[in-house]
Design a protein that fits this description.
It is built from eight helices and seven strands, in the order E-H-E-H-E-H-E-H-E-H-E-H-H-E-H. The chain is of the alpha/beta class. The protein has one domain: Rossmann fold (3-Layer(aba) Sandwich). A seven-stranded parallel sheet has the order 4-3-2-1-5-6-7, sandwiched between helices. Helix 1 packs parallel to helix 2.
Length: 194
């Protein structure tokens, strides 16, 4: 594993703790020799995780659509900035570059990015780890929803195991190192999941 994509908010959130932990994640990635792949902006938690990685001597690849670069939010201190045409291209490029994915607290865009990559893992389109850095219990409701999906038989238990989570960056990345992807999703003739 070399490159970790991080999805997170372009805002700092209500608590300084979110920014502190985003910065700490960046430092942990650099400490482990992992490259950060992220959305390329200098604002919010996006800027914090990039700054943390760079401050610790790490490598950062940003992937930013033209229209956001034009709004002058591009981080100017990155190791590499890849400018693409659209949000779809941004997500595809990040997925191509990444060996694993972490979501930090964020809004609808963060969740959309995480759910797409999680769905691809469930369908067997990739076997890369997908983690939630659960700062201050931010993802507790989402983790509960995953349990509800499983309990109500809309998600198999083996796919619930795709959702790696921890409250600390080091512990979450330790889980990445031992992650084994589940078998590809299949269906029986009566459409019962297997």
């Amino acid at each position: 594993m070399n490159n970790i994509a991080v999805f997170c908010g372009s805002s700092n959130g209500a608590l300084e703790l979110y920014r502190e932990q985003a910065f700490a994640l960046g430092q942990e990635l650099a400490k482990r020799g992992l490259t950060l792949v992220y959305g390329g902006a200098n604002v919010g938690l996006m800027g914090a995780v990039a700054d943390g990685t760079l401050a610790a001597g790490g490598h950062v690849i940003g992937v930013l659509p033209h229209f956001l670069q034009d709004r002058e939010i591009a981080h100017t201190g990155l190791s590499e900035l890849i400018v693409v045409e659209s949000m779809h291209e941004r997500k595809a490029k990040m997925a191509e570059l990444a060996d694993g994915f972490i979501a930090l607290p964020g809004g609808p865009g963060t969740l959309e990015e995480y759910f797409e990559i999680f769905t691809w893992a469930q369908l067997g389109l990739h076997s890369k780890p997908c983690g939630l850095l659960n700062i201050h219990g931010y993802f507790d409701p989402l983790l509960s929803m995953f349990d509800t999906m499983m309990d109500q038989q809309f998600m198999q238990a083996k796919y619930r195991e795709i959702v790696l989570n921890d409250t600390g960056a080091a512990a979450l990345l330790d889980q990445f190192a031992t992650y084994k992807a589940p078998a590809v999703k299949t269906y029986l003739k009566d459409q019962t999941q297997t």
